[in-house]
Amino acid sequence: MNPTFMLGGELEVRRLGFGAMRVVEDREEGVRVLRRAVELGVTLIDTADIYGAGASEEIVAEALSDPDAKPLTPEQLARMRRVSRVKALRQRLGMTQEAFALAFHLPITTLRDWEQRRSKPDAPARALLLAIERDPDAMKRLLAEPTA
User: Fold this and answer.
1) Whole-number mean pLDDT of the chain?
2) What contacts 73, CB < 8 A, 6 or more positions away?
3) Distance (Å, rounded) from C-alpha 133 to C-alpha 114?
4) Count of CB atoms within 10 A of residue 51's CB?
5) CATH class given for the domain over 81-144
6) End-to-end CA distance of the chain
7) For the chain, what are the domain ranges?
8) Which residues pair with 12 in a beta bridge?
């Protein structure tokens, strides 16, 4: 089989692609593998949010940027924090949408909108989510107590 084909009768395109699904398992190895794939002639790198919610795209960008740039160490990554994505947080806690919404006094429709990216949590909601992320048991306990 010919490794190229004509696109629109004018542009010769290579048929060689690479699926980036597994590059998120080990970032440093993923960068190394992607750089080698490009060296070997890969011209299409397939990514998807399902592979890690943007993680594969970040690793591809790193691999295609300065090859002398070193990936962050696990210690550097551990120091970096951002508010968890709602769905990832809920799943880490092993809770259904219904249980999460009930435990933390959130309207389930709002939770679903956040998870499906139809809307974003506002500042007070982000603060609540950060508190839940840092100490979910304490937040459950505090929110379970009857109000005066």
Assistant:
1) 80
2) none
3) 16
4) 19
5) mainly alpha
6) 75
7) 4-72, 81-144
8) 6
pTM equals 0.44
User: Cα–Cα distance between 114 and 132 in angstroms, integer?
Assistant: 15
Mean per-residue pLDDT for 16-33? 77
**Considering only CA atoms, which of 53, 42, 39, 41 is closest in space to residue 19?**
42
d(CA 107, CA 53): 24
CA dihedral 108, 97, 127, 110 (to 10 degrees): -20
* pLDDT band per the 50, 70, 90 thresholds, residue 71: low
3-state per-residue secondary structure call for the chain: CCCEEEECCCEEEECCEEECHHHHCCHHHHHHHHHHHHHCCCCEEECCHHHCCCHHHHHHHHHHCCCCCCCCCHHHHHHCCCCCCHHHHHHHCCCCHHHHHHHCCCCHHHHHHHHCCCCCCCHHHHHHHHHHHHCHHHHHHHHHCCCC
Mean pLDDT of the region 33-44: 78
Contact 41, 16 (CB under 8 A): yes
